[in-house]
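## retry 2 of 3
previous attempt timed out at serialization; input unchanged, resubmitting
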Amino acid sequence: MKKLLIALLVSTFSFSAMADGHAEWWKKAGAPYAGTVIQGVAENTPPGQFAGEVLAKDFEKLTGIKVQLENTSWDQMYDKAIKDMEANSGIYDFVYIEQDIVYSYLDRDFLVNITQSLKDQPELVAPMVNMDDFTTFIDYFKDGSGDVFGMPMEAFVKVYLYRKDLFGAADAKSGFQKKYGYPLAPATSFAQWRDNAEFFTGYCAEKGMECWGTTVQGHTGHPASTYEFLESIGPSFGLYNWGVTDDFHSCVEGGGSLNGARAKAALTFWTSMLEFAPPESLQSTWSEVASTFAAGRAAQGWVYGENAAWIASNEEKSVVVGNVGVMQPPTAPGVMTQAAAGEGYIGYFDGGAYGIPHSSKNKEATLLWLQYIAQSEVQADWAVAGARITHYSTYDDPKVAAMDQIADGYFTLMQNTGYLYAGAPMYPFHAAGRAAIDPFTYAALAGEMSPSDALDGACEALDKVMKDLGYQN
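## retry succeeded, writing output
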């Protein structure tokens, strides 16, 4: 296993863009900007690390343009990027744009129109970039005219991970059957998830093992928990688009559903899982949840797909290599039917892009960099390292197929069922709206408010934001 992983990660990536004479084009295009240093800021994720540590170095060798990518925490990344763009200071030449925040950035005219910039400067158009090879995820970074404002660099779905070794243990199987009256298996319903969580919390305790029944991304002071509810837990119960109506109401009395029965069932289930989750859960964002699972501290859980490959393959960081199962998360009755019909979705199709702020002082050099990472031929190693796919052709690469086997079919799941997932709704008020909901999410997780009362308060707060910003009639 370890030898195969090393072969995949090392796998002859270096200078893949030099094939077929491409190197000469990059050298010529980059010559006027040789010595330029372009600065970027992004979240510290496996795909971002690969971009900064591998792609940026190869790009510099070809063009003479140095890329300094600052990969930092989500909150620092967001804070630094938006302050730079608001102040028009030009510190950053490219910034990471999350799918859920791009509409706010477009509404505030923060970003350079990449499509138009390349039309205006045909000498900068890389002939080896096939924009048609991008998956439909690129559509989230287009305006109403179809122009691109962000070059996708990662895209992945939220999956259900489970410990094959725990679920396959003979004494666990017999013990579960005896206690619950049906066979032990990965969860396909929330009732089963709850039983699994309770059982393995007790099972691990009896054996003196540091593990619990489920993960919970339940930080009581970080927006990650609100995102978890709105983008993963809620949709799986049938709460879509934050429960907001077309005329921007989220409370039931106005026609919304943020405090409706499905939403309250979702929040009740989620908060009830804290009883069976590791003690770090109330301080866990998406990163800590991945680390918790990789450390063998949970039997099952919702985990962002960008972490699936390294958890399943990296023996230096994960103790569960060889024992990671990957499945589609459970959904409430009717949700799968709605998603298949395009009337809902089962979870979040997450990811992001690199965009160029208007304040950038090196737009031309940055356009070259964004096209470099958009090449189909650099995608496979990136996918293996970060479990992300932005191009159709990446699925067919032998290296991706090999990692797919190691990661229990994660890439196949994303390819075959990605259409059931969706990005965040196109709300320019996204940041303000989410911030209004945050305190109520935190209070529910901390046990300071009941799930019902928390959502009643959350919808009122969100409705006030939408009214104050002029969205409600």
